[in-house]
Amino acid sequence: TGPRNQLSLSPNSLGSSSQDVIIRASSTPTWLDCARRAVCKTMPEIVLAAGYQLRRVGTHIGAPVGTAVHAAAAHMLQGKRDGGYVPPFKQSQEVGMISLDAEFAKGEEIIWDATASSRNEAQQQITRMALRYSIDVVPQVDPILVEENLYAVYSPGYLIKGQLDDLVVIDELHRIRDT
Q1: What is the mean pLDDT of each run of 10 residues along the chain (179 residues)?
Q2: Torsion of CA 53, 54, 55, 58, to 10 degrees
Q3: What's the CA gap between 167 and 53, in Å, rounded?
């Protein structure tokens, strides 16, 4: 595996191999809390291959809603970056709804809560958040990178993988934003 302290958009440019363990950046806090739980959650294939059974744990509704809002926001920013215009909001909203449907299609149990106790409420949340994003953020930024994976070498055989929401120019300054 390549040297530490390097970032890349591709794990191959870091000298990684198919044997490397890729740890999602969002999972690093759980690694420090309980490495066993983190492995079970982020790399179940390793645990199953070792002959262990895993209990199924549902997905909190906030995760699919957040993924859908990110999809709608990315659609807006990619349109602005690639075509020089922001697509009509209805198109971006539809991208968000397709993303939500894809999350539901995974078949995992959804854990609903008071903020989104139904599919309809989840769709309303996505629409409201994406609309605010289209009004408050999109006009203010010039996107360069949108929803890109970044990789960094943690130690030989281990890569950290993170998802960059966007790299934008705001007031002539480059900003990495995580929304």
Answers
A1: 56 70 72 76 85 87 96 97 95 98 94 95 98 96 90 82 84 75
A2: -150
A3: 41
Residues 21/38, Cβ–Cβ less than 8 Å:
no
CB 165 within 8 A of CB 70: yes
Q: Which two tokens stand for residue 121?
A: 């409420």
Task: Give the DSSP H/E element, type plus range, for residue 14.
Answer: none
Question: pLDDT at position 16, please?
Answer: 66
Model-wide pTM > 0.70: yes
Kindly give the interhelix angle for 62-83 and 89-105, rounded to the nearest 10 degrees.
Answer: 140
Could you tell me the CA-to-CA distances from 83 to 37, 86, 87, 92, 115 in Å, in that order? 43, 8, 9, 15, 36
